[in-house]
Amino acid sequence: MTRRNDRPSIESVAAAAGVSPTTVSHALSGKRAVSAATRKRVMEAVEQQNYRPNMVARGLRSRRTQSVALLLVDIANPYYPALARAIHDVLAGEGYVSFIGNTDGDAATERRLLEEMVARGVDGVVMQPMALSAAQVREVVGPAMPLVITTDEYGDIPADSVLTDDTRGLGEAVDHLVRQGIRELGFVDGAPGTSTDAFRLQAFRAAVTAAGIEVPDRWIEHSPFDREGGAAATARLLAGPDRPRAVLCANDLIAIGAVQAAHAAGLRVPEDVAIVGFDDIETAALVSPRLTTVVNPAAAVGDACARTILWRVENGPDVPRKRTVLPTRLVVRQSA
Amino acid sequence: MTRRNDRPSIESVAAAAGVSPTTVSHALSGKRAVSAATRKRVMEAVEQQNYRPNMVARGLRSRRTQSVALLLVDIANPYYPALARAIHDVLAGEGYVSFIGNTDGDAATERRLLEEMVARGVDGVVMQPMALSAAQVREVVGPAMPLVITTDEYGDIPADSVLTDDTRGLGEAVDHLVRQGIRELGFVDGAPGTSTDAFRLQAFRAAVTAAGIEVPDRWIEHSPFDREGGAAATARLLAGPDRPRAVLCANDLIAIGAVQAAHAAGLRVPEDVAIVGFDDIETAALVSPRLTTVVNPAAAVGDACARTILWRVENGPDVPRKRTVLPTRLVVRQSA
DNA sequence: AACCGGACGCAAAACGTTTTGTATCCGCAA
DNA sequence: TTGCGGATACAAAACGTTTTGCGTCCGGTT
User: Fold this and answer.
1) Which residues pair with A158 in a beta bridge?
2) pLDDT recorded at residue B1
3) Do A142 and B5 touch (CB under 8 A)?
4) Among A283, A291, A293, A335, which would you mutate to test the B interface (most chain B Cβ atoms within 10 Å of its Cβ)?
5) How many CB pairs under 8 A join A and B?
6) What is the pLDDT of residue B78?
7) B75:A85 CB<8 A
8) pTM, whole model, 2 decimals?
């Protein structure tokens, strides 16, 4: 009596090939030598029964699940899909499979999702922590878990990281504006308390300082990372009697809102106020005026994350930490 | 000597609580009665050791992994993130975790990813098959696997399904055009051979027939589901001496390309040629002219997929199949 | 007093692999 | 001839749970 609705097991393959399960395992994994003739018989049995090893059993015994967790703030945010896609592609190429989770930048959710992933025995975690510090993340995943994070922090980060050099692209943007004689710059940052935002604002400050420009605090606004927020924040920025001649934004959605706010205020873009975005999501090239923006190389970031996690899985926790920083650059279109 | 770097096991919890592992399991799962006093001791031990059950061991024994696979064509396509997000949200609320995979609409990839997921013991699969038929998908996942698919087929589908009533929204679009006296309609369909495309074209034909309109074959074009393809296909459509007065598109990216092609041909939108999209991705409301389009309720689809898969997991393979069809509707903006 | 059934807890098997220790065989060198 | 080492294969343990079959205890009924 065969078990109903069941996939072939290593045992059934072994029986068909006239060998022990051990030998099948070795024939498939190559961990120990198996004679060519035996291997051939095994492979035929595998083929004929269409055997695929049960990965959960394998995972239990070998402590490798061939899976990694991808924990993003919000997959629906237009920046992430390209990143997720790139990660998925290189992982899939190596036989890994991806879990995905949306944290919403909430500490409790970040923690819960991390625990859920650890409990499932993922081989590694790629995460964009917002509420938790890298150290806190490290604590919940344990000291040996391969971990790459995409947000920067001061000091030593107990994980591998892949980052973007936001200051560089923002510097190009500031230069671009200055060359047009524009020195009155505003900035609409993301919501405070998130970690990206602090660093993007900091990058702006660095870029601006490098250009020898002073930006008054009243020209720095905060907004959620979406269009509505960007419109509202920009409206505030433009309401005062001395308004900036250009506003740089922490992401493209905010920038698109900024353009709308400028239009609503009867201002022309870029003639009256120049707007520059950040990320270069697909929409940026499609809105009107087409958005001048700093390109954040999402696919390259994803690619680097995936390669880094695989490298760490391969090499274990003791090899020194890797920190990858990818350049950003300005793409000039119409809005500035 | 404790094992190095190891999480607490059910055994260590049992020891701390002074009971057997069996009792801990029952205390946690509630499968058998445990006295209040014992349960309390167990819970305290769990708390104190911060015990989380190893899901891969649990999965091996119980054959439930609390995970589902989400197999989409391409997460980077702007329509999918909202869908993925909705699915993720309801699943996460029930303690499930999501695998994600991009099939690219390729038969071999669809098959490989499905097998990979099955091997990992997912509790269910939500998939948008493009190259494989539902029957083929069913065959690789086995007869008992909960399966919901989001593409329609003729005849009986061996899976639960959640679909959109594309004909309805397209009908609204046709009516909208007819009311403006426009009866010369073109259609830019997706790439032939994919399953969505066939059904969207069919929906267009149904809508058009219902309105008593005849559409000549030369006004029907095919294109990949992206902007470049849409522009090229529309250029072909508008090149002839008798061009349609309106072109409906199989998705918004194609429609955005169509607008560009119209502009490139020196035509005004919508005065010379009206353009209507499909999906209502976020970009649709941001391009210029703002796109009139059929809204495809991605979040609602995702929500329904997730609820359906959970329902099926709950109820087993024997309860009758469920088929959910969600309405689509026209949103009128500027392009038509 | 004997019986019964429910509540409670434990031991052992099972899930499907990988891993490790060991046995056998064979050829070749001493 | 003996001894030895490599090649090959197998048996058994292990991974960390859930599940199942029993046993014991207890209170209430006959």
Assistant:
1) none
2) 35
3) yes
4) A283
5) 139
6) 84
7) yes
8) 0.92
